[in-house]
Write the structure tokens for this entry.
Amino acid sequence: MINKNLIDLEALSVEQIDKLVRKARKIMQNPADFRHACDGKILATLFYEPSTRTQMSFQTAMLKLGGRTIGFDNPMNSSVAKGESLKDTISVISGYADVIAIRHPVEGTAMAASLYSEVPLINCGDGGHLHPTQTLTDIVTLSCEKGRLDHMKIGVCGDLLNGRTVHSLIKTLAKYEGNSFVLISTKELSVPLYIIDILEKNNCAYEISHSLSDAIGDLDVLYMTRIQRERFGSPEEYEAQKYVFVLDREKLDKAREDMIILHPLPRVNEITVDIDDDPRALYFKQAQYGMYGRMALILTLLQDEDFLIPSRETETSLHRCSNPKCVTQSEAYLPNLSYRKLGMQMCDFCDKRID
Amino acid sequence: MINKNLIDLEALSVEQIDKLVRKARKIMQNPADFRHACDGKILATLFYEPSTRTQMSFQTAMLKLGGRTIGFDNPMNSSVAKGESLKDTISVISGYADVIAIRHPVEGTAMAASLYSEVPLINCGDGGHLHPTQTLTDIVTLSCEKGRLDHMKIGVCGDLLNGRTVHSLIKTLAKYEGNSFVLISTKELSVPLYIIDILEKNNCAYEISHSLSDAIGDLDVLYMTRIQRERFGSPEEYEAQKYVFVLDREKLDKAREDMIILHPLPRVNEITVDIDDDPRALYFKQAQYGMYGRMALILTLLQDEDFLIPSRETETSLHRCSNPKCVTQSEAYLPNLSYRKLGMQMCDFCDKRID
Amino acid sequence: MINKNLIDLEALSVEQIDKLVRKARKIMQNPADFRHACDGKILATLFYEPSTRTQMSFQTAMLKLGGRTIGFDNPMNSSVAKGESLKDTISVISGYADVIAIRHPVEGTAMAASLYSEVPLINCGDGGHLHPTQTLTDIVTLSCEKGRLDHMKIGVCGDLLNGRTVHSLIKTLAKYEGNSFVLISTKELSVPLYIIDILEKNNCAYEISHSLSDAIGDLDVLYMTRIQRERFGSPEEYEAQKYVFVLDREKLDKAREDMIILHPLPRVNEITVDIDDDPRALYFKQAQYGMYGRMALILTLLQDEDFLIPSRETETSLHRCSNPKCVTQSEAYLPNLSYRKLGMQMCDFCDKRID
């Protein structure tokens, strides 16, 4: 089965990702050509938890294509969020809108919503699970700023254990030839083993580092993320290490002139403000690339009839997913959809193992 | 006196309702012809209580006509709602917008607002009192799906005592020839006597039923609404009867093939989810018909100079309305407007008797 | 240095104010000519505290120019407001939008935001500090209704000590020839001394009055504002004086036929409702003039290349501003910018003296 929903960037082929990136670049070069591309079309932004920047990025993207937007950002005040099933809300909204962008704190919600949508649906974040348009943002930025998506040495720094944006970026860039990674974090916050598996399966070189200062010297790209204080092993470790993973002027002076710095934002204090004006600091421009990536995505889902995303082969499992954060826990009518991976049965909504 | 405000569907003639329905069907058939019908016009949606679906329906309707929208949905955060009189808010907003859609938890607020609006004003619900565009939604759906508004046998099921949508639907359909009703509810939740009066005055046949299962067999239309648990006479009655008024596969199997199922939404559990894919289940499509009905309404109020709604003849009564839910309680400057009905003096805002 | 940001109306020359007023009048006369003036442009309304009327006025202004809007009005739910610096938010948003309108409860925030914006930025109110588009509203109203901005006798009534709209209006009108003022308030709520200084420097005649009734007779303009009950010296004074500064029918009867009444709104009870229909009562029409003033402002900032606003000459002071309400207290990366005035060092953000 095929569909027009972007739930997980993993479902796209390299060719499809490249197509989106090329479209984003084309829009960027001639925005006026696309000013009426979505005239008369409506995007619904259903934000069950606030994410002002992501929502404004999608709204701006649609407006710059000539389309219009409806939606909510205010779950507590919204009658939609009160007592109505996700299925019913999506069934109604997909009668109003031409494309839906959904964000929800519960894992698997976008996949669940896509089962009932009559129109293309985009995952704007489902709990700590997936956020594919952030990775699309990163990819568009790399393509535009480095001129390629392959043969790069990428440092990823921060909380590599919990950072979904980092995992998704590694999974995507591992598909391109010649990329290598430097994984910079505390020991406790190293990448999960399944990410190492993916790197090895794709023959990606990687190094592990515990010092940004040591690692920064020969990177093409530095992807910074936040480490929360409470993620350190102990208060003592936090005090000892708190500056080790902060990018400041001193560390940046060791970097190459053509290294670029990315960050998914919001930043807290992991990049000092005095670096913002350095030409290598691209995190604000990256947000703008994200808007162009979203324009490309909306346009492609609405107009490119050949852009079809394959659905996973699923079966109905006997057991319900037991992940307490999974959408199947709160939306009782959902089927027990699962798929096979390495001999295990995985929940089709939250991608956790079903026993 | 005449006006361009839709406060109560009762104020429209059958010809006017038919005109709106015809216009809605015309838009549905050729939406592209109307894509610029309201270019440059602005709809203000003033939602003093959240009703996300109604608000999105109005916004979508205006956007699909080429117009634009402003408004709020967030009464607690809104400076408009804080300390400013309804009169002042409406006086200012009607200087910005070309048409106003207002929802408010207090009865009679739409009528009160219309006194101070320089532009057409639409009631999107004023407490438990009136919600005319829901009935317009129902009427457009029936017209499109049954091909007529007369000679139907309509079952209404659920809380018939408190359901304003049911009352308004019965009052409207009673004006068309040959309609009959089956009133399906618990004894405690039967329709109010004044609705029986209306049915009898209009020579509408009606039956009373306490079992959806018994009644469903020869209906053209089944209009489902919710019964809240606390509306049953006692917890024992709730336990004994809780499934009697739930539409499930078993009961639906007794219905005719061409019966259609409507519901004003949101649904809770009075229709089981396994019925949603039955071709007779039209409640999601009904929401879409509602959007077309609202497009027809906005367009007609803005552009059809002959579409004039007569105001009731009112007088100023000595006594203020004593209904604690009436807008006259909170907005001190409002006059004591009343009208005569069956020899009684009725409040022009909330339609309750003034003594 | 020059910029395209409207932070303080004081930064504009009389010629620039006149240009905005003329533009507003031109738009008012031929709105259709401007319906596509901002096609494809986006206004971001960043409202960190709710001000529904101001926000809707800006949104309407942009929509009537053919542009579109994004933004938020909901600081508590907004991820932008949570933990992200003003600098980062503005850096991102100015990559999406063509012009920014910002409101914030903290003094100096608009000035601070303008340092990091790539696009023109408009101050929509920063705490009790400045609100330049309210004064623009007043000026457009006066120009349209009196046909001039000079040789008027203007009464300002209410809380003259704390009312920023009154101060800003006096400062602006003092620049035009032949204006005189009647300052009507309790003794405790008289205008601050620096306003008297400005009047005297500009050779403006002024009188002080403690009675609206006595003063109203020979005014061209009466500008009403609210006195809060708690601003009176004592409960006894409140009781004794509460009606002295309320405009009612009796006092209005002493006014000239061509006097006009303005009010920045929201009104509480300082103007009785029975006056609203008097042709001299222009406060609701004033809100509409404000919308045209904002249209003129947006259009001018986006399109008039000659409309450049001079920045103050600043230096970096040794001491940080100690005003607890100043934006420099919460946004640590801001420089200690100051300017000289009468030999004192003033904070460039909040305009308070730095010691």
Q: What stands out?
A: The mean pLDDT of chain B is 94.
